[in-house]
Amino acid sequence: MTDAPAPTDWARVLAPRSVALVGATGRADNPMARPLRWLVERGFTGAVHPVNPKYAELGGVPCAASLADIPGGVDLVLALVPAERAVAAVTEAGAAGAALVIVFASGFAEVGPEGRALQDELVVAARAAGTRVLGPNCQGIYDARSRLFATFTSAGERPLTGSSGIAYVGQSGAIGGSVLDAAAERGLDLTAWVSTGNEADVGLTEVGRHLVADPAVDVLTVYAESLPDPDDYAALAAEAAAHGTALVVLRSGRSAPGRRAAVSHTGAMLGDDTAFTLVSRRHGVVLVDDVEELLAAAVLLRGRRAPAGRRLGLVTSSGGAGILAADRASEAGLEVPELTAETQEKLTRLVPAFGAVGNPVDVTAQLFNVGGGFGEVCGLVRADGAVDAVLVLLTMLVGDTATALARDLVATVAEQGPDAPPVAVAWMAGEDGTGPARTVLRDAGIPVFSSITLAVRVLDAVAREPAPGPAPADARDPVPGDGWALLDALGVARPRSSRSPDVTAAVDELGGLAVLKAEGLDHKTEAGAVRLGVRSDDAAAVHAELTGLPGVTGVLVQEQVPSGVELLVAVDGGREGWPPVLTVGHGGTATEVHHDVAHALAPVDEATARALLRSLRCWPLLAGLRGAPGVDLDAAVDAVVRISRAATVPGLGELEVNPLVLLPPGSSSNAAFLASEARIATRSDPRHAVAVDVLRTER
């Protein structure tokens, strides 16, 4: 639509020398009066220029009739005007030399085609004027260091006097206001806060890339309603990791536009945000599910490293709380390992004999009655090499005892330093009896939860191991001229098959026992279009039955595949610019019932393929269950790697092999695995209109 914008001068935006408020109002009850009042009263370091020809002054500040009347120009413009006047405000801001215009008004793309057209005009005007636009339909910017209150969010009514090292950027003004307010309520005044709204021009990834490079920002929290541009998001995640800035993302709107109405099993198994999640995990991004988790994860990571693994140490004042936490941790896939013998020996000197020192460590109420030692217990657990994070579980410890305990714990954490495993607290007692103690902990950067479940969810989120990136593309990877040669080019064996009109002879040629499959149908099993164990004598009759089914275009005679473990292995060729995704799972006709799948960015190497297989619930079937021989695991890994290389084929929409039959040692087949069924779609045919059996050519 327009040329690419010039880079934003963020120094002039977040610490502007001057701010102009176009459409400033004298109505104190109008939310749009807040920015001027806050800028004047709260120590903003630059000049403030209200702009409105109706007033000579506002808030004790001289009022300009227009932007052109402000000598020396301006750095930042707040457009406090209705949607129909926003384009003119942007043009005038560019003429005044503004680096950025914040358009607060709604009535743009969010209301329909007319609003979309007006939003497009806004961008055209910005490009022509040489300025950038934040919004429209946003709530602006707050920066603690320059005392910039370029926002009208009611959360700004809080004092907001500190700077926590936590920053925020998000697409929703309302959610952003909640984050700013909830953080301040916890004593975590944000360092910087940006609401991007409709993102007609400046988007959250651009803002985020600036903030993760800011030395004052330890953690960037992000709220996204729609998936950002894949390349921009990957750059944000990679740059955050490079700068050592923790990135915590809360994403809603999981029914993103990229989803296809596919008839394949893969379509049912592959969520819209699977590639987004994998790219996030590859760069160590922490993904959370609500605002409470967003802030708690930020506190946990502020100034500290993320847990090195998923092993959790539990210290509790109640045996019951320890059991509950161990249960929740196990359900989340966190380990609760037994502490080393050396640590347990040290703990026995502090913990009463009727307590427990293995993990969970139950100090019992007796420890508090004898006057101290709790911080030392937590320190011993934290220093044990068997744990990567510590969760402290407290029940009805209140008042002065609670405050003394909190100070003891804070002193221990500080003494051990930021490189020791992170510590969190779940306190199951009312705020009225534990308020001062919670404040002591929060001021020290130790997150406090009122729920064991929430604490475990956050620890699970921050302890996720980075996902491996795709394996380097092999220069020999195939680019076949037609899709039906793809499995052959990948080196994936498939059963012999025939399409001979003499079906009886075809079955004889395949050993006298074969499978007959009707072609041209989706989900053949449900349609009764697959017949197993067909003998030569019955072949003609079965053939006649199948050709009589509605929609059948032909009948394939296929070698009967020996029984084995059935997998689904599929490659989605990438959607909306996101990278290809490999899906591996328990296959066969009940794939959706099993819902036993794992994903990775494709293609994969052998280590990743093996890890995917081991993560499946059906892994025991592969390894050999209850004396069964299992399958050739090296061959299974090889099959997954080979199929994943389909990701390098230009134009691939999807390749799904289901089932990939993994055969036990000593099978009559010459191969260790066989692709019994497969489907192919190109990007030009995303709904599989031409998808048929890969086994089209005779062998």
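Second entry:
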Amino acid sequence: MTTYKNNAADIAITDISITERIFANLENRLDEVVLVDGPTNRSMTAGEFIDQVKKLAGGLTSKGFGAGSVVGLMSPNSPEYCVVFHAVAWAGGTVTTINPTYTASELNHQLIDSGAELLITVPMFFDTASEGMAGTKAKALVVIGEVEGAQSLADMYGDPIESQVPVDLDKHSVVLPYSSGTTGLPKGVQLSHRNLVVNVDQTIAGGGFREGEVAASFLPFFHIYGMNVLMNVHLAAGGALVTMPRFDLELFLQISQDYKSRRMWIVPPIALALAKHPLIDNYDLSSIEQVFSGAAPLGAELSDAVSKRLNCVSLQGYGMTELSPVSHVTPVTAPKSGSSGLALPNTECRIVDPENGADLPPGEEGELWVKGPQVMMGYLNNPQATADTITDDGWLKTGDIAIIDSDGYMFVVDRLKELIKFKGFQVAPAELEATLVAHAGISDAAVIGMPDPEAGELPMAYIVAADPAPTVDEIKAYMMESLSSYKQLHKVVFVDEIPKSASGKILRRVLRDQLAGT
């Protein structure tokens, strides 16, 4: 078996809950502001945060939503989101984090599958929440704010619970985010206190986090990237967050400037803006030392363009919900363009031939497998999907095609299921997309396979053009200069925007469905 591991020392595994891990740092800085609501500048100190978490945990418990209960949280980012999340955890419950832009039908599926008994939302999504609760176990709806006739979160506080309600750190699901995994419809990912705590400490160590870091937090807390890498890492490591309910470039830049942020946590679509948008020049971003991108591959050309524009280091990491989420981080002391980095402490990797299961040597493409204490417990109510994803000896099959070089740096090539098969050749959409967005006349791009009876699939691109827009012939000539003949585009479609998930991943299935309907 060929395995790859970081030479850095492993971190110690601690026997505490995720909220105890957060409190351990906050208790020595009770008067410091740790959470700020970006649009309103409302702030919360560490002491206020701890107090609210303990009182809300007490109120939830007294109303029957304590230990063993599942609470749905459907809200954009705010300081109150952090309070609710950790109050449920402190009370011994489980949070199932829900995309606030879900339709009632999508919400209904998650509430039923997770078994949530209480749903907490905001006024904007109250009607959708009410409709989506029909036929579920969720009999109570609470609003962060005020809606006439609805129960407010302010009424849920009670006598504080002073200590963590006992839970099995390895077997209790503290959070149930939903992910499609490598295939299929969204599934509940069972993450334990151990998973979250370990990954917080791994990320702090691998990412070189420093006390006092303040970041603009637009990455949604319902998604594991925003949840554990931003919310929990910043609170646990001596930092602070300025929350944003949605991405707004001006507010993001204003926060980064005013708080002298050391790093920006982003996804690839934001990298495009940082590299190309003229608004960037209106702000003093000299404090930015690094831009860290995750959730989807970032091409070397775009990564380098961000680095040059902001005079900082542009880094990538790798992870997935099933990994709590991080397994790889590019060290700021030794970046490598286009790489997703080195394995975190306590983490092992393999590159496996998806056809025959053989381990592959450095430099060869195969499916990335990961093993470590951050690997999920499994999928809720879906033992078959769990067995298909995690081997009997604990290796998680990521579904990503990757290369690990001789120095241990990992490069994502593409999703295994998204590879385009052209006359027997495998074409990686991410590679074509990275080449396209490096063109000055292209703001964004997505590539899928177009069914063809002779070739199997033909690469085609959906493109958001900049001004001035290139012609189709110019784009094809540009691609011919950069890529092999079998990677050339056979069709180009200009669109206003590329469909993406909240975490920035291209929704290729939406484009495939559109193509099939034309």
